[in-house]
Amino acid sequence: MGSLSAAANWTDGAGTASANAGNLSAALAAGVAAGATETEWLHLLVQAGNLSASSSEPRLPAASPEPTQPRANLTNQFVQPSWRIALWSLAYGVVVAVAVFGNLIVIWIILAHKRMRTVTNYFLVNLAFSDASMAAFNTLVNFIYALHSEWYFGANYCRFQNFFPITAVFASIYSMTAIAVDRYMAIIDPLKPRLSATATKIVIGSIWILAFLLAFPQCLYSKIKVMPGRTLCYVQWPEGPKQHFIYHIIVIILVYCFPLLVMGVTYTIVGITLWGGEIPGDTCDKYHEQLKAKRKVVKMMIIVVVTFAICWLPYHIYFILTAVYQQLNRWKYIQQVYLASFWLAMSSTMYNPIIYCCLNKRFRAGFKRAFRWCPFIEVSSYEELELKTTRFLPTRQSSLYTVTRMESMTVEFEPSEADNTKSSRKKRATPRDPSFSGCSHRNSKSASTTSSFINSPHTSVDEYS
């Protein structure tokens, strides 16, 4: 998640082994022999990718031998043909374009429509902002650095480039975690108060503060080094490569393993609750409608989390393997492996808007409104209503909810004998809605339980649509 360089193995014309990383090439061009441990670690850390290309500052031996071959004879084993560079450029360009514009549209859909401003969607705004920012400020810059092994963007952006990506990934994954915990509380214990708008903002602010603290060492130790014919951006750790490795293992645990474990547990419990079986007795259509809506929201968020986990897993495996088996950094195809794993990790920023559009009718309506200028996009009147600002429209469903609440009250307060006649008249006067046939009076207690299970006093119907 910080600056990086492509894997480059530089050798002289006589075949003498030189250093392993592209950011040592200039020094080697001056005739520096391969320097065992530190050289290998520098190559590894440059290859470590966007969890930062941190390393100890490269130091030249005190007595460097004269070069045995002219500099012009030095060649890069990992130079790619132009057609391959064009394909990689297209692949990374698509990721950036879809991620930035897709996530900006998600932010607009939520903030511009009051009906979309729910607790879950506030966290989705934070997630979209993190993904769009990382795609815009990190992906292409890292890709250029990987291809050219030279830093073109100055010292200040070097610090930002090493600092911000870890911050953005932390904010993204913990926004997903907050949504999982919120879904858990809403479904498992619906009678407890939900997060207010103020509390949600405090949680989001806390996530960013913790993200800044975790990534601060990357900013503190970032440096650029101007070498003969090359400028490098890297992180100079005070205690060298070992400290770098420990730091990034901690980062992997905090931004990947731990939050995925929490979300795995919460969504497993929620899934068992929602898909594990029906509540005994006859239940009304309103219950089934709300249950179906809850399942859709949980299903969508599970797909988002699984997508994130799949996209980042190869990259983390790549980092660990190249740290343990340093000889892999000299493999002929390691640059292609790195570019592929890094592309997959960065592509995680573009999938969420696609998932929302495919699985949520209101987001789908919002995307249609955003692209209504296209000749083949039509927004129906029903889709327009989906994004209206009114929370509870005067429809048959809202009346049905009122009837459900009234019936649950008749269970709690038994009528006296003197009121039996009036009560029976009221019951006979109750309109019979065909869609309400599932809620029978003999099972009114079950209907009351269902109503409290689905509609807590702190939850809006819009939370599950």
From TrEMBL:
Matches recorded under Pfam families: 7tm_1 (PF00001)
Localization in the cell: Cell membrane
Keyword Hydrolase among record annotations: no
GO biological process, one term: positive regulation of flagellated sperm motility
Ranges where the G-protein coupled receptors family 1 profile domain occurs: 102-356
Disulphide bridges, residue numbers: 158-233
Protein name, UniProt field: Neuromedin-K receptor
Organism: Mustela putorius furo (European domestic ferret)
Gene this protein is translated from: TACR3
